[in-house]
Amino acid sequence: MAEPGLTTDILVRGLIVGASKHLGTRIVMEYRPGAGGSLAAAFVSTAKPDGYTLFSGTASTIIDGTLTRKVPFSPLKSFTPIIAFAASEHTATVVHPNAPWKTFKEFVDDAKKNPDKIRMGVSPGSGMHMAMEFVKHQEGLDWVYVPFPSAGPARTAVAGGHLDSASVGTDWGPLVESGMLRVLVTHGKSRALPDIPTLMELGYDFDASMPQAILGPAGLPADVVAKLEDAFAKGMETPEFKTALQQVFVSPFYLNSKGYGDYLRQRWATYEKLYKQFGVIKEAATQPE
């Protein structure tokens, strides 16, 4: 795991209740934060392929971030996909509740009139970053990106009034409910809240949805993959997991080992093209295989 308290952590804690019972053993959570989840992924990539050391996260760590920075693993070669168990659909652009922008259109219009005025927190190379790059590219905007190691600290900086805006993960719900954040737009296919539009609804053909998944090191035996895949699929059926989904505005979603491997390869090709189109990279920082 990369960081405690964020979307992946909450979901996996719900998922392992049923998975542990099915496996007949306790699953222990271990956190290795830093570099947008790359430190945790790198640790698992060198683990013994016996099924006892796994990584949970999104393609933002495995694919998106590795396009922009060199990492000590191969995105499409160093891991054995096991299962995708949820879809992080409702990432969002957030501001402080006292900010002058009540809608995303007002936010964009202000950015047009005042280039380089708005400061936006992002985790560089993430899907949330690319959502804002898409808007920036389509509208011809100039805002100032403020880099953070993950979306959590960026969200906290906005809630504390230290930053104008941020493009963050799906775990913004509690801060919105407590009045510490305002959501201007979400980045998935459907609305998370009835009165908050999506980028697609506003005319931006971009969907930042991505699966939450579990992977092991490369070389996991097929029988081990099948056993783990079945156990985590059983975990998806529990009340604990379904409650976790609701807590972080995440949708149920399933891909088996092969399906998630195919998804990763497709995402690499799509995002490498987007990054080059937006001028984020000239060439991928890490070779995929």
List keywords for this structure.
289 residues, alpha+beta, D-Maltodextrin-Binding Protein, domain 2, 2 domains, four-stranded antiparallel sheet, 10 helices
What number of domains? 2
Distance between the termini: 23 Å
Let me know the largest β-sheet.
5 strands, mixed
Structural category? alpha+beta
Radius of gyration: 19 Å
The helical percent reads: 40-55%
- How does the overall form come out from the CA principal axes? globular
- The low-confidence parts are none
The order of strands across the largest sheet is: 5-4-6-3-7
> What is the fold named in CATH at topology level of the largest domain?
D-Maltodextrin-Binding Protein, domain 2
Number of helices: 10
Under the CATH scheme, the architecture of the largest domain is 3-Layer(aba) Sandwich
- Provide the succession of SSEs: HHEHEEHEHEHEHEEHHEH
Report on the architecture of this protein.
By secondary structure, this protein is an alpha+beta fold. It folds into two domains: 150 residues, 3-Layer(aba) Sandwich (D-Maltodextrin-Binding Protein, domain 2), CATH 3.40.190; 95 residues, D-Maltodextrin-Binding Protein, domain 2 (3-Layer(aba) Sandwich). The protein is 40% helix and 17% strand. It has ten helices and nine strands. Strands 5-4-6-3-7 form a five-stranded mixed sheet, with helices on both faces. Strand 4, helix 5 and strand 5 form a beta-alpha-beta unit. The longest helix is centred in the last third of the chain and has 21 residues. It is globular and about 60 Å long. The chain starts with 6 loop residues before the first helix and ends in a 12-residue tail after the last helix.
